[in-house]
Task: structure prediction
Amino acid sequence: MRKICGILVLVAALCLTAVGWADDGGRGKGKSDHSRMTFTVTTTDNTSCGEEAGPWATDVVKRTFVVKDNGDGTYTLTRYDRGRFTTMEHASPGACDATGRHGRLVHAGHTGKMVGYLRGTITGGTFDPKAKCTGTDCGFTGTFIATFFGANAKFSCFSNSKDCSFNFQYVAPLGQRLLYRHWQDKGKGAGTKLQEEFIGDIADA
Result:
């Protein structure tokens, strides 16, 4: 789960206009029992090769957290990301995928758009929508949870759990001489229960 690992840390025929597009998980929008908070975040993305291989892109993201009280002492937290990425000189994001077609290398300076979501359950905390967060890390998931749910709150996407889902897509426009222009990182679960799938790539070769 590369977007998660980078914090702790949507097929292939999509065109650029598809960024209006991607699967947001199908739940959580426009209901009165949800609270929303939006931040601007600069972060990095890791590849299919794992966190230890380092990042392939820098993202500037509009990040919205949506909180739903489940009525049983737990909360559903959904994080929606939408923004732009800029590549680094690195192994391509799909380079270590054992299935499908992908490249192996991406050069620095390619740009594109990304969108996606992460959803899991908060336990052991109480949501305080009036809590204040003023630091530069407020948009990062761990900081958001600690600030608005308390230091003892746990997020299922940060543990060994089946209770997590995510779907992130990256699309680069034509005109950048890329061999592959779309990469998708999606899955369910977290930790030892993670089931992750990669589709495509952002790659020069």
Q: What stands out?
A: The CA atoms of residues 44 and 58 lie 4 Å apart. The longest strand covers residues 50-69. Helices lie at 2-5, 141-149.
